[in-house]
């Protein structure tokens, strides 16, 4: 697709340059004022050299201004490679990890702050401790003991 656009543009540009060179074949004298001597060149040659020099300066300026974007892309590429390695390492570690016990999340360790759902053998199921630290065993409503404030 790009070749379909590039070839005709280069052909047209070449024809324009050839036409310019053929129409400006007259010899002109070019001299630098403080220096002695002069150059006798066809008129199209210094014009084309000046245009070529300007194009090179423009290319250099564009390349120089895009340096920060090239550096950012290089840094992002390195970061992506590091993260890919870390993901592969974590997947390998996860594959070698033993299966979790039933009822526990895959990646979380057991939480000692959460009490088990079933009561222990030394405490009855309907026992609660009130604010005063007294057990309300046998008190089905879990209300305060008689005589408590």
Short précis:
This protein is mainly alpha-helical. Helix content is 50%, strand content 5%.
What would your notes on this structure say?
The structure is a single chain. The mean pLDDT is 81. A hairpin with an 8-residue loop joins strand 1 and strand 2. This protein has a two-stranded antiparallel ribbon with strand order 1-2. It contains 3 helices and 2 strands. It is mainly alpha-helical.
Task: Please outline the helices and strands.
Elements: H1 2-23, E1 27-30, E2 39-42, H2 44-65, H3 67-96
Antiparallel strand pairs: 1-2
Name the descriptors.
2 strands; 3 helices; mainly alpha; 149 residues; single chain; 50% helix; two-stranded antiparallel sheet
Number of strands: 2
Mean pLDDT across every amino acid position? 81
Spell out the helices and strands N to C: HEEHH
Strand order, largest beta sheet: 1-2
Low-confidence stretches: none
Radius of gyration, Cα only, in angstroms?
43 Å
Distance between the termini: 91 Å
The biggest sheet amounts to: 2 strands, antiparallel
């Amino acid at each position: 697709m790009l070749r379909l656009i590039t070839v005709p543009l280069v052909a047209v540009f070449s024809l324009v340059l050839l036409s310019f060179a053929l129409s400006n074949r007259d010899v002109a004298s070019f001299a630098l004022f403080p220096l002695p001597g002069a150059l006798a060149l066809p008129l199209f040659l210094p014009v084309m050299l000046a245009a070529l020099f300007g194009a090179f300066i423009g290319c250099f300026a564009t390349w120089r201004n895009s340096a920060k974007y090239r550096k950012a892309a290089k840094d992002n590429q390195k970061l992506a490679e590091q993260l890919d390695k870390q993901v592969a390492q974590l997947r390998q570690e996860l594959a070698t990890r033993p299966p979790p016990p039933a009822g526990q999340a895959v990646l979380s360790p057991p939480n000692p702050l959460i009490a088990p759902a079933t009561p222990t053998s030394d405490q009855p199921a309907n026992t609660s401790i009130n604010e005063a630290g007294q057990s309300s065993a046998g008190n089905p409503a879990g209300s305060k003991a008689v005589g408590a404030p």
